[in-house]
Amino acid sequence: MRRLWPLLPILAGTLMILLGVFANGNPTVFTDTDDYFVEGRTFAYTIGYALHLKKPPATPTDPEDIADAKQAAADLKMSHTEIGARSPYYGLLLYSTQRIGTIWFTTAVQGFFAAWLIFLMWRCAAPRAPRWTAYVTEAAVAFLSTLPFFAGFSMPDVFTGYTALAAILLLSFWDSLRVWERACVALFLGVAMTFHTSNFLNVLGLLVLTGILLVLLKAPRKAVWAPLATVLAALIGCTVLNGAYAAGVKWKTGDELHRPPFLAMRVLADGPGRDYLRSACARGATYVLCRFKDLPLDNSQDLLWSDDRKKGIFNVTTYDMRLQMEKEETRFVLGSVAFDPLGTIEAALENWVEQLSLYYVDDPLKNPHYYLTNDYWSTTNLPWLINHAADCGRDHWGCGPRWTIEASEWVHGGLMIFCALIILARIALKDVSRPFTFLGDILRGRWRKVAGDWRFSLRNYNFADDRTRMMLVLTLLVAAVLLNGFVCGALSGPFARYQARIIWLTSLGAAVALVSLVPARASLPVPAWLRRLWNRPLVMAVRSRVDPAFLRFGLVGACGFIVDYAVLSLVLNLHLGFIYWTARLISFPVAVAVTLFLNRTFTFKAPSHHSPWRQAALYVAVQVTGGVANYVVAGLAIRFVPFLSHARFVPLAMGSAVGLCLTFAGSKYLAFKPAVLITPHARVETAEDGEAADDEMVRAADEVVEAS
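^ that's the sequence the OP posted. Answer follows.
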């Protein structure tokens, strides 16, 4: 139980995030979701072909099929000019998870990663806080931030915050993480950075900043080089993964992967690039962009993706022109910077400030009605993804979000300001128990006292001190938000989605800052009315008759059902030739193995009367017997009570209840029968409850002791 209890707040956090998504409506998609889905499906099929798990499609012979195949090959070749900006690894995650359980399962997986990282941050940053504060921290981030909107968004945006948080954990709490936790966080970091280029740049910035701070704080050499080397290794691993995929595509198709000229379009839209283009083209420059110098060139998104030839550039050009445009991007950007360096810096800073102000949720709140009815998007994979997650009705208006962008501006703006004040007070104070005193000094203009507090704090920093670690962590969380604003605003252009996806780190920082002040022995306050209800005679009678092991057994059964369903869906969706009943021969043993482990370590923790292998055999027999009883009871109920054939839920519930009771009784009294421990004293205790046995067993034990 001591090893498994961390799973409880992680699972609770995952459920809270799912509840937040459900409160808003349903998981959401975006236009780019189709690109990731197609990329992930292609990646999965390629792996299946290579491992001979899936047969390649037959060569088409029908003229129409041949024409379709040629068009698909042409589209694939054109996509190689831009697909370098779409991660195949996130596409593989999206494709595999939605095949198992629609995009709701994708949301659950993304929410689980968040809950896991939040729990690790709570445990490391607030080591003396009571356990119940872990649930408070998970709830604060799940209900008081933008996180659930992006956890339910079938896009890699949410992993920007995850990668920043994983890097901060490794860099700040290296010695607080177990070896296997370091390995898992580093592996997660390396893979998640491949999901988006901005993730890589953010982590690289955090690595440099943390290295400077650790040196200034005079941290021990091991506390500096080990985490820095691990994060650097994750950055290298990310680069290797991306390079390996690009090499695989080139080996298979002969094409090199490219990404759209984002930076060139950015400097054009900002102004300096536009002035440089027209000046250079007038002097005889040979840029491909010179053909478009008379366009407005004032919106980077239109320049990239518009199909209107009076606004767009990249999306309306040919394959060769795209390649030439991408090849010339570096030279064009450097020329623009040299042409007007001050204007370029000013535009970048303006974009950075604007990006930081775009904290609200917009794209995840877009009504899916657009994707279901648009002439183009209704022909993509988006309607399939949406309709398998929810029923939007015949008019396609039934899946709209309950939140609005205006509500997000007010709510999340207020939360951001409130959390920023908490973080500021927690960082700046000499005495962390007096935040309002520090704020009062600022409001009264007592700058000398504030400066004295800072100088006192700087002289007394100690890396081993929890308060210094807290300051380092909160500083890095704020720095991650600022770095993301610069990377996205200055390089890609200001968009609300890019900042709202990471602003939830301020809510996490404020929550951790507050719970770290809770005394270790502080108990969660329980309302008086709840205590009175808990102590009512009727409630106490029910409590005394409910076996806690039965509740734990029910939780384990729910976990087994989820595992069974996940494995069954995975096997069926891999298209390996399995039908439902043969796939159950794989999913059912896996579920039984998982529930056996959980029941052995969580439900029935006492030493067993049986050997491990005998216990496992008895447990399997009990599960099979319970399954047969479930089926028989449901079948008999339908056979002898005819009207139940129209209400299948009733016989199903009857069979499940009988099967549950039978398997619990068989598990408790047969498979996990507790060992009898005979002590040299005048009593016999069972490993299950420790109660004294009857007088006859006591006399028998005394005789054994005297004989020995």
